[in-house]
Amino acid sequence: MIKQSDAPFRLLTQRHGATLAYTQMLDPHKLLEDRDYLEFHQRDLTFGRDAGNETDGSVVVQLCGNDPEIIVQAGKKIQGLCSGIDLNLGCPQEHAREGHYGGYLLAKKDWPLVQTIGKQHAILVSAMSHLLQPPTSVKLRLCPSSSPPSSTVEFATLLEQAGASWVTLHARHVSARRRRQGAADLDVVRTLKAALRVPVVSNGNVRTWEDVQRNKEETRADGIMVGETLLGNPCIFANVIPDPVQVSLEYLEICKELPDIATHKTIESHVRHFIEFKCSRRPWYNKFRTALPACEGIHDIEHLLRTKVTRWRGKAALKNHDACTDDLEYTTE
User: Does the active-site annotation cover 91?
Assistant: First the structure.
């Protein structure tokens, strides 16, 4: 998730039941050519690893691209800071189409690019699995609808043979305009699980804990990956729907413990998602959406949550924070 998988958020999810977390998709060219970009993500991984002692703290770094040499060189820059490195073959966004990577390498005409590139026929996944220390995984979507239905399983089998330690399937087709077009086809995940020897992770069709269980039962997958739903409920794997203010404050505390890791914009976005998940239809929600961008730092966001938001919900202001005069207006939740 672009700019949403910062170390504080990963740690929050792992405190509440997630057993493995992924970084956002990183650009291998920028890891090699942009020192600030490299150092920012190395710091994120280092702080996340050190703070993860209270949990397992396992994190997979996700890379994109179509050049095995560049990807391997970039992977070596961060391989000592993670538990695995994932090749993204599922990104549906326009920049992936323009750069010819992510989900736009799934057409059969592009399989040779993934399997064999260059005069030495270096196998992309094989190069990663043999030249990088951590295990290599692959996340993909369904092969284009113009391909035979069996193409996705056929392609994943080739990736397994190339050295992928596990495969994650988001069982939807790539669409730059509609990223979640239709329901994920869990039957394909189940077929894939039966065909591969390596673990298979299923991604898609999860909004609740019951969906997690249903997905696992239907697909028999070894694991379940959750993306955007986790932004609203980072406690889904603990079968808990948290109080939105309390989980926001917990996230902010982690941000204070890991300073200068999540940007202010990222922090603001997470808090908005937490509150929106349960409160988007409340009469005061638009006032919150207006007030949040005016906050200039973590302290301001905490104050907003502990006073105005708490009062708007019809609850007593949280202790240790004095209310301002303009905090007295509220509407019951």
Answer: yes
